[in-house]
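Researcher: Hi, I'm a grad student and pretty new to this. My advisor asked me to get structures for two proteins we've been looking at. I'm not sure of the right format, so I'll just paste the first sequence and hope you can take it from there.
Model: That works fine. Here's the first sequence with its structure tokens right after it:
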Amino acid sequence: MSAPQTPPAGARTIGILGAGRVGTAVARQALKAGYEVRIATSQPAEEIALLVEIMAPGAAAATAAEASGSDIVVLAVPLHKYLALQPALLAGRTVIDAMNYWAPTDGELEVFEAAGRTSSEIIQAHLSGSDVVKTLNHIGYRAIEEDGRDRGADTRRALALAGADDDAKALVAGFLDRLGYDAVDAGPLAAGRAFQPGTEIFNASHSAERLQTILAADREPARS
């Protein structure tokens, strides 16, 4: 990646809920891209200040309310803790769902075991006043920093995104671009099923062209 850039006018602040490996990797990459980054956990801001300083130098330790007031908010907490997310704080915000359902670690949760909805659709139902966009869930935390490339690079990796609101998806696509990735719109949140754990897309590196091909095949009705 090249030197830090000035972020686009559409999004200048990134709030990250969660200070684990994914959250701090996204924070570091966003800082390189010139964004102002705020990180919050369930702990008071002053209690995570040292952790944030070590793991994401340049980011600010924040309260959940401060992080949730950002232009884009990234959910990077264990999925089984999703009910602790405060819908009122995130109302009116563009929210990236970077979480995945892992039964071995989360335990079998009936709401996610049911086949009717994707995990991000469940998150959207909980955060009914937010515009949830599913992405950043299908790339490893190390790769978030290692795989970013300048726009137009032959080896640039693509990331899928899904969501109901076109404006929110456009905002997130711009963010992914600044992080160093081509954004490929998979469609509504239900389309996020194509890049959940266990799929061809999940945790694998694809070009935009290849990713579009996989998503198109996933949308085709099964032939008898």
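Researcher: Oh nice, that was easy. Here's the second one.
Model: And its structure:
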Amino acid sequence: MKIVTWNVNGIRAVHTKGLFKELFALDADVYCLQETKSTLDQVPEDLRETSGYKFFLSHSLGRKGYSGTAIFTRETPKQVLVDIPHDIAKKYGLENDSYGNVNEEGRVIAVELDKYFIVNVYTPNAKADLSRVPLRQKQWDPAFLEYVKHLEKQKPVIFCGDLNVAHTPDDLANPKANTNTHGFTAEEREGVDKIIAAGFTDAFRLFTQGNGHYTWWSHFAKARERNVGWRIDYFFISQKLVKQVAGCTILDKQMGSDHCPVVLEIK
């Protein structure tokens, strides 16, 4: 099985550029998209009805053109799950963020397939003023981790998406200059530490070590051309799946967004 994750920074924009043809040429079984910025009726019909795939979307309820996640899957899911379950969201106060109800921003969509759950996530940005760091550390990150651990009790989990954090100094080009800036605070990085401590594995690091491997670049100062980037898009897998992973690759040549896709292959 081949799974692709990509923060498209606007599904309609990528479609208008004709770049989904390149994406579907990868012949993946599942595509997980983040920052889709569309309601279902705004997604072009020819894209929603891509031959051979079922399409599912979760969109922001309060703000149009904001956030959102989507999944294309060849296998018909046993069920489609949208958002973090209400009981977990309530436990961690996700409805009480100063920006609004973070669980109504279309940030999580999951499908249950025959062998595992695939969870697609677009994690909230901590904001340049770090105003959402408390949300990340005390609310979102623990709530999301509890959710995927709950799913894992039923079958193995693969979760992917834009986690909006570089985990280690090897995951961004300029770690010293960005220490304690949003995306590289100790609190956000701790969230990934806890994911790993809970038994999930960063699939990319099974095959590739060191720096220089990034999935997001600023639009400023030709950052992408100079590969001054951040690795903030991930695949995490249940421990039971580690031996089945055949590869995990960053497709840094794929244009169309400020992020690039990442591909996971499972035997």
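Researcher: Is there anything I should tell my advisor about the second?
Model: You could mention this: The mean pLDDT is 97.
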